[in-house]
Amino acid sequence: MQLIPAIDIYKNRCLRLTQGNFKKKTYISKNYLLNKINNKHYNRIHIIDLEGAKSGKVKNLNTVIKLARQIRKANPNIKIQSGGGIRNISHIKTLISENIEVILSTTLLTGNQLINIKNYIKHLILSIDYKQNKVFIKGWQQEHSKLTHLINAVNTTNLPKVIFTDINRDGTRKGINKTNITKIIKRVCKKKKIMFAGGLNNTHEFKNLTTCLKTTHIYGIIGGKFLF
């Protein structure tokens, strides 16, 4: 299980939200974040185009790519995953060409979109943002479906990785909700690599989670505000 720092982009600037509320934005210096990341030698970084996630259209693709290249100057082997408003094959191809894994929305599971992207499955990560047993889309602004139903749908796909974000905890540093993630772990197929986000307080909490969840199929814990 690995610790994965998160960077959010909005209007070409780095920031953090609290519980997905765009009125509660905290802007952060990009150089400050890069220094924090480079000094710790992380194995994977999570970058989200929040503006794109909210609008459903990619808004900061060039900024994401530029940031990824800057991160790799210090650590060429680091894994990078990114998403936010990605809906078409051209954007997927662009990110893959930069050796960036692509995070796609829950809406991927509707219609025949999985068929259209089957050749890229190994590079894709499904993102599920939830509050209690409800899944939300469009930058957490619109309710989509029940979490339990969506997990059942995920288990029938070939998608290798899934991210679950607890909206209630995101950006709060109140700690990961272990009760929630334990329930999710039990429902998700063990072949899937699971990542959790929302509420991580500090690296000490991550170490405790590593100990108590070491027998599970968790791939990583994503956090943003613990960096500051």
UniProtKB/TrEMBL annotation:
User: What Gene3D superfamilies does its record include?
Assistant: Aldolase class I (3.20.20.70)
Which InterPro entries does this one have?
A: Aldolase_TIM (IPR013785), His_biosynth (IPR006062), Isoase_HisA-like (IPR044524), RibuloseP-bd_barrel (IPR011060)
Pathways per UniProt:
Amino-acid biosynthesis
Q: Which UniProt keywords apply?
A: Amino-acid biosynthesis, Histidine biosynthesis
Listed GO CC annotations: cytoplasm
**Coiled-coil ranges from the UniProt annotation:** none
* One GO MF term: 1-(5-phosphoribosyl)-5-[(5-phosphoribosylamino)methylideneamino]imidazole-4-carboxamide isomerase activity
One GO-annotated biological process of the protein: L-tryptophan biosynthetic process
**Which PANTHER family is this protein grouped with?**
1-(5-PHOSPHORIBOSYL)-5-[(5-PHOSPHORIBOSYLAMINO)METHYLIDENEAMINO] IMIDAZOLE-4-CARBOXAMIDE ISOMERASE
Give the protein family.
Belongs to the HisA/HisF family.
Q: What is this protein called?
A: 1-(5-phosphoribosyl)-5-((5-phosphoribosylamino)methylideneamino)imidazole-4-carboxamide isomerase
Which species is the source of this protein? Candidatus Vidania fulgoroideorum
Its lineage opens with: Bacteria, Pseudomonadati, Pseudomonadota, Betaproteobacteria, Candidatus Vidania
